[in-house]
Amino acid sequence: MSKTAKQTADAFAMPAFDATAVTDQVREFTEKGVAQSKEAYAKIKDQAEAAQKTLETTFETAQSNGTALSLKALAALRTNTEAGFAHIEALFGVKSFGEVIELQTAFVRKQAEAISGQAKELQAVASKAVEEISAPVKSAVEKAIKDVKVA
Question: Could you tell me which of 58, 109, 54, 114 has the C-alpha nearest to residue 82?
Answer without folding.
Answer: 114
